[in-house]
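Changelog-linked ticket: fe (ii) ion example.
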Amino acid sequence: MRFFLPTKVFFEDNYNESVDEIKKLGESFLIITGKSSKKNGSLEELTNIFEKLNKKYEIFDETLENPPKEMIEEIIRKFGKNWDVIVGLGGGSPMDAAKAIAVLCKNDISIEDLYVQSKYKTASKIICIPTTSGTGSEVTQYSVLTINNVKKGFKHEIVFPTLSILEPKYTLTMSKELTISTGLDALSHAVESALSLKSNSFSDLYAFKAIEIISQDLPKLVNNLSDYSLRRNLMLASMYAGVAISVTGTTIAHSLGYSLTTDKNIKHGLATAVFLPFEIENSGSKKAEEIKAIMGNILNFLKKLEINLNFEVSDDEIEKWAERVKNSSHVKVTPGNYTKEKIIKAYKWFFEESGLFGG
Ligand SMILES: [Fe+2]
C-alpha cells in the first residue's frame, strides 16, 4: 500500500494560525481566482492578510471554467514568472490553473510538457483556498486543463499544494445549481475511487466516509442552502474524496463525462455523475454492494436531485467520444473491462435508458 499526502491543511482556522504559515511561504503571491471570490468575501480576507504581512501580491480574476491552455499562457505573459507562491482561490478551475502556473514559473517548458513528468522537478509553492465543495484539488497532485478542446489531467507530486485553507463559510453563497454540480463531483470522486482497481484500505477509508456524508447531506443542503453545518460537512467530504483520488485517481465516469463538458457545456460534476449508475452496475465488484448499502440506488438518488440533461447529440459524436475514452488512462483502472463497444453502451444507456436525459 502506498500513499503520500504532503499538504498542510487548515480547516475552519479563520486565519488564526494559517497566517504564520502564509508568512513563511515567501514574499510575492500571485492570486488566481474568478469573480465569485469578491462576492463570498474570500478575496478580501486574503488580501487583508497580505497587506498586514506586507507581502507583494497581484490578482488575476478572470479564470475560465475548465482552464484552457491559452489562458494559462496569457497569465504568464501578463504577470511573468517571478512569484514565490501561486494561490488558487475558488473552484477547481483556479486551483488547477494555479498548479500549472506554479510549474511554468520555475521551468522553461510548454503547457504540453506538463504531461511529461520527467520534464520538470520544481514549482513555485502553491496555496489552495477552495470556495466550492467538489474538486478536492486542494489535497491532490492533479490539475485538469483544456487543450485543443480536450479536457486532460496531468499529475505530479510537485503540484500537491503546500498549504490549503478550507473555510466552509466561503461556500455559503453558492447557488443551488452549483451546490449540486460540485457536490456530485465530490460524490463521483468518492464512488470512482472506491471502485478503482488502485483502491486500498487507506483510500477506501476516505472514499466511503465521503459517500456516507454526501449521500446523507447533499439532498438536505439543496433545500437549505445557508445551513452552515451542512456546508461544513460537504467541504469535509469533498476533501476526503480528494484524499481518496490522490491515491487512486478517477475512473471511467470521469472519462465519459469529459466530452459532455467540452462539447456540450455540461458542468463537470453533472457530466460525470450521470455515468455513476452504469459504472457501479457494470463493475462486477463487491464494492458496488457496499456503495449501495450506504446510499441505496444511486440512479434514484440522482433523480431525487432532479438531474436531467438535454442537448443534441449524434451517433458520430458518440463514436468520437468513445474512441477518446478508450484511449484514456481511466480504462485501465476501472473494473468491468471497458472495450469500445462497452463504452458506446455506457453512452447509449445514459441517452436512452437512464431517465436522466432528454426529459
Ligand atoms: Fe472531478
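Closing comment: Example verified and attached. The longest strand covers residues 28-33. Residues 201-222 form the longest helix (22 residues).
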